[in-house]
């Protein structure tokens, strides 16, 4: 029997709201920090399937979340497409060569980087109870492209946005490569045991409406169509952070089964605007988990009330912060679970 999270993503209204938190496996947990100190850097953990499976399971053991989200990173796809990937202490990820400087076809693909991630999924699924849903993920093409073009993260994604205007053919080729690689990657995760997958478009909010349609909606639709043909029973969650007023069109046009919403979206508004019965995920402000107290309780109850009667997965509006007190997560779960 599927667990409450999988049931909800398939359109059922659960008696108890299922809950998982983005970045629930990570730096706020002492058991994660201990394992990372033992094993080394972040990328080393991602490619160590046994360690990555252990990290994926840590929050399930501690909190009993309804979903286990694969411990990995959205930049595995550019690594597999042939860019060198490093995570530098205090600086974040670096990709080279930058695709603003060199052509995509100069890269040599390295699809073997997907294999340890698939093994992580297999190892994790084998250790989960049937009531816990195994979640896989990939970055959406626009967000992944911003890193591939600039070689690193940025606040306004100026380099990628400028290239998309200046040379849409070259930028489109990068998007196409990410689409095809992501289809392979997500399909491999599902074959290994992922029961639902999420597309993270963390930088979708930086685009104009026309560019959003071209670089977010259209490539996301291609991924959803292809993955659904291969795995028709697997729900796909789309999370276009910062989309705001463009969210309803994204939900209708991409074909995703469920839509994630960030903390800037009014949950009552999106409840009115989304197609009737479409599952939704979100959207507590992660900063409330740091502050805690009665304000946290009240905000969580507001999110629960806003989606009453709609299939709803309780989650944050983005990832949990590394400074979040564990006691505050426990308090949130007490509210959500009644």
What does this structure look like?
The structure is a single chain. This protein has a seven-stranded parallel beta sheet. With 338 residues, the protein is of the alpha/beta class. The protein has a single domain (4-336), classed as TIM Barrel (Alpha-Beta Barrel). It is globular. It has helices spanning 4-9, 30-39, 42-46, 49-63, 76-81, 115-127, 141-150, 158-166, 168-192, 209-230, 247-254, 267-273, 286-291, 293-306, 326-336; strands at residues 67-69, 84-88, 92-96, 133-139, 196-201, 236-240, 258-260, 280-284, 312-316. Helix 7 (141-150) crosses helix 9 and helix 8 (158-166) packs across helix 9. The chain starts with a helix and ends with a helix. Helix content is 49%, strand content 13%. The model has no long low-confidence stretch (mean pLDDT 96). The longest helix is centred in the middle third of the chain and has 25 residues, at 168-192. It is built from 15 helices and nine strands.
Main attributes of the structure:
9 strands; 338 residues; seven-stranded parallel beta sheet; two-stranded antiparallel ribbon
């Amino acid at each position: 029997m599927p667990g409450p999270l999988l049931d909800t993503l398939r359109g059922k209204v659960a008696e108890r709201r299922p809950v998982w938190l983005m970045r629930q496996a990570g730096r706020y947990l002492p058991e994660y920090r201990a394992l990372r100190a033992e094993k080394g850097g972040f990328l080393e953990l991602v490619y160590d399937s046994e360690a990555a499976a252990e990290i994926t399971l840590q929050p399930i053991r501690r909190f009993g979340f309804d979903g286990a989200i694969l411990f990995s990173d959205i930049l595995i796809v550019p690594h597999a497409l042939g860019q060198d990937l490093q995570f530098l202490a205090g600086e974040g990820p670096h990709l080279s060569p930058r695709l603003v400087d060199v052509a995509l076809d100069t890269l040599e693909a390295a699809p073997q980087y997907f294999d340890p991630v698939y093994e992580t999924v297999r190892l994790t699924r084998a250790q989960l109870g049937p009531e816990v849903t195994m979640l896989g993920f990939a970055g959406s093409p626009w967000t992944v492209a911003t890193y591939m073009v600039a070689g690193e993260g940025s606040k306004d994604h100026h380099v990628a946005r400028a290239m998309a205007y200046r040379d849409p053919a070259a930028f489109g080729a990068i998007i196409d490569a990410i689409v095809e690689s992501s289809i392979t990657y997500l399909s491999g995760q599902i074959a290994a045991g992922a029961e639902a997958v999420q597309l993270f478009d963390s930088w979708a909010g930086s685009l104009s409406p026309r560019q959003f349609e071209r670089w977010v909606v259209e490539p996301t639709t291609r991924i959803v169509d292809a993955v659904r043909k291969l795995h028709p029973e697997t729900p796909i969650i789309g999370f276009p952070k910062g989309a705001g007023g463009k969210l309803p069109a994204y939900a209708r046009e991409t074909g995703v089964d469920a839509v994630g919403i960030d903390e800037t979206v009014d949950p009552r508004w999106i409840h009115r605007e989304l197609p009737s019965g479409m599952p939704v995920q979100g959207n507590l402000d992660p900063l409330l988990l740091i502050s805690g107290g009665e304000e946290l309780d009240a905000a969580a109850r507001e999110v629960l009330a806003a989606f009453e009667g709609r299939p709803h997965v309780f989650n944050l509006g983005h990832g949990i912060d590394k400074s979040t007190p564990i006691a505050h997560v426990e308090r949130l779960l007490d509210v959500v679970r009644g």
